[in-house]
Amino acid sequence: SMSLPVPHSEGAARSSLNSAFWCCFYGGGIVGMLLIYGLLQERIMSEPYGNDYFSISVFLVFCNRAIAVMFATVMICFHQESAAHAAPLWKYLAISLSNVGASYCQYEALRYVCFPVQMLGKSFKMMPVMLWGIAIAGKRYGKLDWLVAFLVTGGVTEFLMTGTISSKHQSGTSAHGIALLVLFLALDGFTSTFQEMLFREHKTSKYNQMLYINAFSGLVSFISLAATDKLGESLLFCHRHPAFVVDTFFLSASAVGGQWFIYSQVKEFGALVFAATMNLRQVVSILVSYVTYKHQISALQIIGLVLVFAGLFCKSTSGLLGEHMRKQLQEGKPLLDDTEAGKQKQADPEGKVA
């Protein structure tokens, strides 16, 4: 049969269908990978293997980074990119130090607080980020931004105050876990800000950056394992509990898979779509954690969660609608976005020259 020329509208519909498919594919990949990552993280740090608890967080950081280095190396060979470092090595090292510190705090916190608290802690930074924005950059925020920030911050606070938040088999106090989460937020903020600078100043490809940051992070975590004599202890634990090895491998693989999906989505669909995806991921991860590990939850805590979810939903919808309206108004012009995920924006200049 001869092929007829496709009418413009049908072609446009097909291409928007195509782009909707990829958007959902990347989104599903992010939510799925990070869901597996979250469940395994909680399984490894909070639940026993036999009668043993695993307590060496740095070992997990090391395994994650080792798998990521292998992945980045394969991708660099596959895309025939240069493996030379694009930025000065000390910059990679600075990012790696804060990155290892942040990951360590995140895993370690799960020994003291349950996973939903760790997830909610991440949305707690909304208000501080806005206040810093006003203080340092003289930013101005609309009514909706404040509403969302109050809903989310209020919801998280209520959740923390009105029910049990400790890890099921915890040893220390939950205050200990909260302190680790605060440290995590500080280090994480530094990591992403510095990484954004790196992308702007030195046009690094995503795999190049992945290779060097993860290689340095792997080195830093390996040295700290060796220095504290924890390496032998970790390997002994692996030997005693083969199930732990399997969990750790899938933890690392899902982290790397998640990274790949995130890079791809940000590159093709921008920061706002990514921010909305991460909000959805938060909701799904928290609910699945409750179902899987049967944490206790109080009625007031449920109200807290509803407030947070409402705030996040509000933020995503208004962000995406706003972007859609802007697109209609200025077809083809670059979109401005100043969301906190804007930092992911430069996540992949793939050799484009400014």
Automatic annotation (TrEMBL):
Any Gene Ontology CC annotation: endoplasmic reticulum membrane
Entry annotated with the keyword Ribosomal protein: no
Protein localization: Membrane
MF-aspect GO terms: 3'-phosphoadenosine 5'-phosphosulfate transmembrane transporter activity
Record InterPro entries: EmrE-like (IPR037185), SCL35B1-4/HUT1 (IPR013657)
Source organism superkingdom: Eukaryota
Transmembrane segments: 20-41, 53-78, 146-166, 178-199, 211-228, 243-262, 269-293, 299-321
Keyword Lipid biosynthesis assigned: no
Membrane topology of this protein: Multi-pass membrane protein
Major location category of this protein: membrane
Keywords: Membrane, Transmembrane, Transmembrane helix, Transport
Region (Disordered): 332-354
Annotated protein name in UniProt: UAA transporter
Species classification: Eukaryota, Sar, Alveolata, Dinophyceae, Gonyaulacales
